[in-house]
Every structure is written in structure tokens, then in C-alpha cells.
Amino acid sequence: MKQKYIYGLAGLLLLLLGWQLGTILLSQRLPMASMLAPLKTWESFGWLISSGEIFPHLLASLKRIVVGLSAALLIGVPVGLLLGFSRRLEMLCTPSFQLLRMISPLSWMPIIVMLLGVGDLPIYFLLAFATVWSLIISTASGVKNIDPQWLQLGKVMSASRKELLCKIVVPAITGHVLTGLRVAVGIAWVVLVPCEMLGVNEGLGYFILDTRDRLAYSELMAVIVIIGLIGWALDSLIRLALAKGGK
């Protein structure tokens, strides 16, 4: 375990070194690139935190993530259960789902904005659309991996459908759903930033555009670092839940 942290820290230090060398080389051709250096970024990072400037944007982004993922869970898990238990339904839906899954969510932005207008609603839709597929697939996979003997045992003991679902199916698929949720969080966090660059006045994506327009490049880099740290934290929380669920 100790070795794991040592190697992880070494990797981060190498990343930091590469960042510094990259800005030095780039600033020789473009002096403004010196604003992207780690030290300048750290100073802006501290100011954004101490002044509270970043928190309204961070909270707005997290709210959109929660709403989008909640919608994806409410749709993806039930649909995955149906596909897992019904072979015919799976054969009927799989080609269409695979086709839709391969379309970039961002390609829907012009159509969704035309239909739903600007604001949070189209962002919620795009986040849910982007993440629902991993939840459907992981849930269906979890259902297929349930030992049939457990279901048969429940039926022999005269368990109702609700009892089979709550006592056997849900515990059996929880790990798969969490794995799908981990993938979904990564997708949502990546999709969120470009979505927030269109038609909203708060959020991390909006703040990146704002820093660009103000030529505040050290703040821009600080926001990029914050995006990475928050994404890392969200992923770590789900990995922790997976680890506890496996015990």
C-alpha cells in the first residue's frame, strides 16, 4: 500500500515537471504562455478558493451532475433490469441502443437547445443521455450474472416478486450498478464542461470562457486543475463504495 502511494506521488511530480517544462518552452514563442505555469496557477487557485469566486460555479456544476445522473439512474436501472430478464426485449432494443450510444451527446446540442431553449434543462438532458447507457449495460450484465439457483430458491420459498427484487436481485446487481455509475460519472464530468459553455451564466464551463475573455489564463488553468480534482474525488468516492460493497 505504501509503495502504491509513493509511485502515485512520483507520477504526479513527473506530471508537474512536464507541465513546467512545457510552459517554459511555449513561453519562448508566446510570452503570455508564462501565465499557464504551475506557480501562477497555484496563486490563482489560492485566490479563487480564498475569495469564494469559484464556489457558485462549482455548486452549479455539481447540481447539474447530480440531477443528470439521478435521471440516468431512474431510467437506466429499470431498463437494465428489463433487458436482463427478457431475452426478447434485449434482442429488440440492443441494436437501437448501440446506435444511440455511439452518437456523441454534444452532437445533439443544437437540436436540444432548439427544443428546450437555453439554461439548465438541456444540460440535464444531455448529461442523462450521455450516462444512461453505461447504467443500462451494467445493470443488465448484473442481472445475467445472478445465480439462477438463488432465484429458484426464492420461488421455492414462495417469495413475492417484490421480495425477489429487494432480497436477491438488488443486492446481486449493486456492484455492477456502481461500476456503471463510476463510468457514468466520468462521462458526465467530461460532457458537462462543454455543455456549460452554451447559454448559462454560471458553472465551471462558463467560468472557463469567462477567464478566456478576460485573458486571465492563470485562473483558467486553476479552473482546469479544480475540474480534475473534483472529478478525481467523485471517482474515489464511488471506488470506496465499490470496495465496501465487495466486503
From TrEMBL:
Which Gene3D superfamilies did the record assign? MetI-like
All copies of the ABC transmembrane type-1 domain together span 58-238
Q: Which superkingdom?
A: Bacteria
Q: Name one GO biological process term.
A: alkanesulfonate transmembrane transport
Question: SUPFAM superfamilies annotated for this entry?
Answer: MetI-like
User: What sections of the protein cross the membrane?
Assistant: 65-85, 97-117, 123-143, 164-192, 220-242
Q: Name one GO cellular component term.
A: plasma membrane
Q: How does it sit in the membrane?
A: Multi-pass membrane protein
User: Main localisation, per the record?
Assistant: membrane
**Could you say which residues form the signal peptide?**
none
PANTHER family with a match to the protein in the record: ALKANE SULFONATE ABC TRANSPORTER-RELATED, MEMBRANE SUBUNIT, TAURINE TRANSPORT SYSTEM PERMEASE PROTEIN TAUC
Q: What is this protein called in UniProt? A: ABC transporter permease
Q: Which organism is it from?
A: Mannheimia bovis
Q: Give the taxonomic lineage as stored in the record.
A: Bacteria, Pseudomonadati, Pseudomonadota, Gammaproteobacteria, Pasteurellales
